Amino acid sequence: MLATLTPAPSPAHDDAPRLTPAAATPERREARRSALVGNFVDQFDIFLPVIALGGVLSTSSTIPDGLVFAATLLGRPLGAFILGTLADRRGRARVSRGALLGLSVCTGLMVTLPLHTSTWAVAALLALRFAAGFFLGGQYSAAIPRALALTEPQRRGHLSGLVMAMSPLANATIAAATMMLTASLGGAYTTWGWRLLFVVGALLPLILALTARSAHAGPAGHSHSPHESDNRDPAAHDATDDEEERVTGRVVAALFTLMTGLWLFTMMGVSVLTSSLRPHFSPHDVGLVMLVATAVSAPTMAAAGAVSTRVGRSRFFMAFGALACIAAPAAYLVAMHAASSGSIVATTIAVATVQIVTVSAYGPVGAYLAEHFPESRRSRGYGSVYSASIVLPGLYPFWLPTVTQWLGRSAAVPLVLCVAGLLVTLAPAWIRGSNVGGYEKVS
Fold first, then answer.
1. Cα end-to-end span (Å), the chain
2. Contact, 178 vs 52, CB < 8 A?
3. Positive or negative, the Cα torsion across 10, 13, 18, 21?
4. pLDDT in tens, 290-309
5. Buried b / exposed e across 391-405, counting CB within 10 Å, b at 16+?
6. Measured distance CA(3)–CA(5) in Å, rounded
7. Where are the domains of the chain?
8. Is residue 168 a contact partner of residue 191, using CB atoms and an 8 Å limit?
9. CA-derived radius of gyration, the chain
10. What's residue 436's pLDDT?
């Protein structure tokens, strides 16, 4: 019976985790749950101020919402590097729980803030968003590599797709909740109603942290050994000095380039597209369009992760990026034309198409990044590349207006989408065929 449950390692990946079913099943299940729910919490928190406070900040405060978003982005790379390094050395489960608790405190404190123009209120809001970004960067740097290392090689793409699909689900959840509260509370939403969403945003990481801790408790309240409870990818070999050196330079630059392209997809295909719809539709209709579109992109993102295992992750990204160079700008222009005509149905279909041909590419990225870093640097490497690459695309409120002045409103976003597709296409070609990491890659 045990022989049928234990995956037989192939010669191609002798360093893959070998865990007996009795010991592995609970830990694998808990690690995957932490990665899935943790990424939902991550995306919920990072986009919560953007969606839930969009109208509030514009009516009750002079704080630019782009500045609030930027404060979060700047904290993420720092948290990914510091907490990711700590996770590699001290245990990924422990660091992930600590980061979740820190995120809960930061988001909870935002509930108490008055959103007005006093210096201390502005400083407190930006400081809390920076701290939240710090803990966010550390949380997924620990949880996602840990879950992937405890997953069979042939299933990592599938798990990666499911984990990344939590992002559009989180955005859809925020959009739906915001629509419900604004419809039911009316003007009271800008006064106090928005705080309800931040209470939820504080409770989610707290609940995840507490349940993750209890999942590691052994019989009669005794915890497992540190090796079991704070797993650092057991049986995946520690990297040699040669591997440590090979992961630097070209590999890191290529991964950074890939993620920059993906984040440009997100900013143009989600944030900018949302704001471009507002002159044509009511806030309720805009929320409905984006709710449907992001919900549609979730299953396609999950499917993309599974497809990458069959065709190879590098080939997937190169093919997807090449297609997106043409399809993404075209879909965006169709969406804008449909919006200008006032057709809510045509606009919804076009916006959903934009989502499919852009952010669906995130599906395999969790596995792809983790597979390129050795065990001793996996959390730090994964988190740093994932977080640092978001800063330039995330600061689009400061550089996109200049591009728009140069090229015009109708050409600026399509051009950026085309550039994003080129980055996604070219980046994997730089490192295709390399074999760096604690377990095999699906190239």
1. 33
2. yes
3. negative
4. 889 988 999 999 999 999 99
5. eebbbbbeebeeeee
6. 5
7. 30-431
8. no
9. 21
10. 47
Say if residue 35's pLDDT is above 80.
yes
Q: Which two tokens stand for residue 176?
A: 């739906």
CB 36 within 8 A of CB 166: yes
DSSP 219-287: GGG-B--HHHHT-S-TTSPPPPHHHHHHTSTHHHHHHHHHHHHHHHHHIIIIIIHHHHHTTTS-HHHHH
List the Cα angle 439/215/102 in 5-degree steps.
85
Mean pLDDT, the chain, rounded, equals: 79
pLDDT-derived band at 246 (thresholds 50, 70, 90) equals low
Dmax (CA) for the chain in angstroms is 67
What is the per-residue pLDDT across 46-65, written as a single tens digit (0 to 9) for each? 778 777 776 665 555 555 55
Beta bridge mates, 223: 217
Q: Does domain 30-431 have CATH number 3.40.630.30?
A: no
Please state the φ and ψ torsions of residue 27, each to the nearest 5 degrees: -70, -40
* Cβ count within 10 A of residue 262: 25
Q: Can you give the pTM of this predicted structure?
A: 0.78
| Average pLDDT of the residues in 187-199 | 86
